[in-house]
Design goal:
Length: 117
């Protein structure tokens, strides 16, 4: 197996494992928040819902996705330059997915912040 194939395989593993772990962690955190909210309501306490916190969470997620996309693109470019393999440049498209998702989240954040004003 040549170095380019190893890089592609490693990139594919990273692109599937890291988002899966992040989604599972986010799900567990939200489930914990929901359980705490339900227990507080059962005891007669009302927890206020803060739309600013939701908007900030959206901004944070968007920023992380944009940074991840740029990082993937940069890593592939460096690998292609180091290995002198022009075919490896096609893998920069993998970085476009989180880049555009992050861009969409940042547009959503901007919309939410305008609605809060």
């Amino acid at each position: 197996m040549d170095a380019g194939a190893v890089m592609m395989l490693g990139g594919a593993v990273v692109l599937t494992v890291l988002p899966s772990v992040a989604m599972a962690t986010g799900y567990m955190a939200r489930r914990l928040e929901s359980n705490e909210r339900i227990k507080a309501i059962e005891h007669g306490h009302l927890l206020p819902f803060d739309p600013k916190e939701v908007a900030l969470r959206t901004r944070r997620s968007g920023t992380v996705c944009v940074a991840a996309g740029l990082g993937i693109i940069a890593a592939v470019l460096v690998a292609a330059w180091t290995l002198h393999d022009a075919d490896l440049l096609a893998a920069t498209g993998l970085g476009l997915v989180p880049l555009f998702i992050g861009g969409g989240l940042l547009v959503d954040y901007r919309t939410q912040s305008k609605e809060l004003r």
